[in-house]
Amino acid sequence: MAKTYLQTIHDRAVAVSDEAIAALSGFDTDMPTAATDPTETLCLLNTLGSPATTATTSGRFFGLVVGGTLPAALGARILTSAWDQVVFNDATSPIGVKLEQVAAKWLLDVLGLPAQSSVGFVTGATMANFTCLAGARHAILAQQGWDVLERGLWGAPRLRVIAGAQSHVTVLKALTMLGVGTDVIEWVPCDEQGRMDANHLPAPDENTIILAQSGNVNSGASDPVAQIVERANGAWVHVDGAFGLWAAASDTTRDQLAGYESADSWVVDGHKWLNTPYECGLAICKHPTSVHAAMATQAPYLKVGGDAAPKDMVPEFSRSARGVEIWAALHSLGRDGLSEMINRTSEHAQTLAAGLRKQGFEVLNEVVLNQVVASLPLADGWAAKLAADVQNSGDAWFGPTNWQGREAIRFSVSSWATTDGDIQRTLDAIACAKEGVGF
Ligand SMILES: *Cc1c(COP(=O)(O)O)cnc(C)c1O
Q1: Is 134 within 8 Å of 159 (Cβ atoms)?
Q2: CA separation (Å) from 166 to 188, 190, 193, 340?
Q3: Which residue CA neighbors atom 13 of ligand 1 most closely?
Q4: Is 239 helix (H, G, I), strand (E, B) or coil?
Q5: CB of 140 closer than 6 A to ligand 1?
Q6: Domain count, the chain
Q7: Do residues 315 and 351 share a domain?
Q8: β-strands 208-213, 236-240 pairing
Q9: Within this chain, do residues 165 and 313 fall inside the same structural domain, yes or no?
Q10: Pair 288, 307: CB distance under 8 Å
Q11: Which single residue of 127, 198, 249, 410 could bond 401 by disulfide (Cβ 3.0 to 4.6 Å)?
């Protein structure tokens, strides 16, 4: 069933049809009293479920920042599902721990990050931001003699947080989950590409976390981390590079990240530009002891296995063998394949931008990575309608956005599966839909 799904996904409409959505009512039954044959259960799942999936792995899905899934990474997920390992420590899963260690080493190397950094395997950038910032919170307060694990935040020395005005919502969510409200944030204005203006950084101190970003979710632009670190004055500099940090894996795009490697902690998602299946977020920290202090869990019954315990570096206790999928993606691509994928998708974004300009669109961003934001000089409402029309055509999927006060359509070319033909077909569909919005 999965094989057939994958073999036909590239020819299917990207958006889900109304019929497929209506057919989901087939699931609105009472829970069966008697057991069902597992094959019958799966057949029902496939018959009603598969048509109701957006074809995000098809090569013509450009919404949010959604990579596809590399064959080796998908195969690894299927195999690890059969293994059903809990990568809690090396007593419960020697292979899970081993491949997390190998993948971590390869990741730090291919991303050009300090080799002593810790790598925590979490569900996504949201939890990776949480993990890194928990480490930062712990380290900053510990420096002032305040053990946040014992005493919490009531009465604690006040943390300062400096953030770019274009910080991703999930970084702010991570902050609020850590008991640091958004009211404390000292906002830094951004330029027209969404980059933090380091000249307007309030003077940081050792009590400060600075939230920087590599890869703005609309424009793809990155904050000038080198300049920020220069002015950090002992502050902890955190970089949310959920998709953008993968640009570090290519000689062509690495310069866009502007000194990213000198920060204290970083976040990147396997399930975005690396094209692993979902729930492959990575929390990377130059100060492993701080993350360990914030995340370690001890109890007498846990004294099994060696010291290498993934459970002590991430929020989750029981969890799957995510490192295996990351390892499989990196192993199957190799260094050359990874940089080639980053370059190829970035070139697709260039082609898309050039084609849009030819059709009369104004491309609002400098296309520095895989993101394109384009606008038409029309009254409000056109972008949502144009995006919906293209979605309904089945040819491609992208969404509307608002960028620097302008209504726009937005593309993220993040899938290994996207071909030249996919880009052309998308441009053709846009040319058709454009008439529908009166341009
Ligand atoms: C996608 C994204 C996130 C959130 O990542 P999840 O994996 O969905 O939790 C955070 N920051 C940026 C810049 C992103 O693009």
Answers
A1: no
A2: 9, 7, 10, 29
A3: 242
A4: strand
A5: no
A6: 2
A7: no
A8: parallel
A9: yes
A10: no
A11: 410
